[in-house]
Specification:
Layout: H1 2-18, H2 20-25, H3 38-42, E1 52-57, E2 66-72, E3 75-81, H4 94-97, H5 99-104, E4 112-114, E5 123-125, H6 127-145, E6 147-149, E7 155-165, H7 172-185, E8 188-192
The chain binds iron/sulfur cluster.
Iron/sulfur cluster is lined by residues 58, 60-61, 63-65, 88, 92-93, 95-96.
Length: 197
């Protein structure tokens, strides 16, 4: 009981000591330190620890809001809207504001699930393995299906064996590169994008 009383009186004393009103009544100006509680005095800017700031584009939709990525020791610690972006002018919607959670989530999938032809089970494979396999198969299909001319001799230089379906998060620059690589480079003519704006 004594212990509880002591802790209670310590808390009351701390509250009174930290309360700005008695200090102001004692003559300290409201514009001085008297107006600050210990909690306020201990508050730190949330980005104070960042040692690097990078720029990025929100990956969630085709609006393409600009972002500032704050990092400490190479690890992101905060994401906010870039005020220099003419698109979002420093703002982010709730999805974009949640980008840090997506970056750091332990639930984030970093492996690829692969199901071999005729198999009834998925296997975990590294992303690099999947990228290499996609590149090899793309080349193979392109070589097998590329048509230089029609039977009447007209030049077409295209393949109907490959197609591309883009996502809403792709921005202008990415779509430009896709068009150049897939269309001009591979001869793909079935290229679609799910742009929402
Ligand atoms: S999801 Fe939100 S923050 Fe991200 S680009 Fe779209 S509108 Fe901007």
């Amino acid at each position: 009981m004594t212990k509880i009383r002591r802790r209670l009186s310590e808390r009351v004393a701390g509250f009174v000591r930290d309360w700005s009103l008695p200090r102001q009544m004692a003559g300290q100006s409201v514009m001085s330190e008297a107006a600050r509680s210990t909690t306020s005095a201990n508050l730190r800017p949330r980005l104070e620890e960042a040692d690097r700031i990078g720029t990025s584009v929100c990956p969630f939709c085709a609006v393409g809001c600009g972002q500032l990525i704050y990092a400490k020791n190479g690890r992101p610690i905060h994401v906010e809207g870039d005020p220099r972006s003419p698109i979002n002018q420093g703002t982010l919607c709730p999805k974009g504001a949640g980008t840090l959670g997506m970056l750091l989530s332990p639930e984030r999938i970093s492996d690829v699930l692969y199901r071999a032809p005729y198999s009834d089970r998925w296997e975990k494979r590294p992303l690099a393995w999947a990228m290499e396999r996609i590149a090899q198969l793309t080349k193979q299909v392109r070589d097998e299906t590329f048509a230089g001319t029609l039977p009447d001799g007209r030049i077409i230089n295209h393949t109907l064996g490959l197609g591309s379906l883009g996502g809403a998060t792709m921005d202008n620059e990415e779509n430009y590169l896709i068009k150049k690589l897939f269309g001009g480079g591979l001869g793909m003519i079935n290229i679609e994008n799910q742009a929402r704006i």
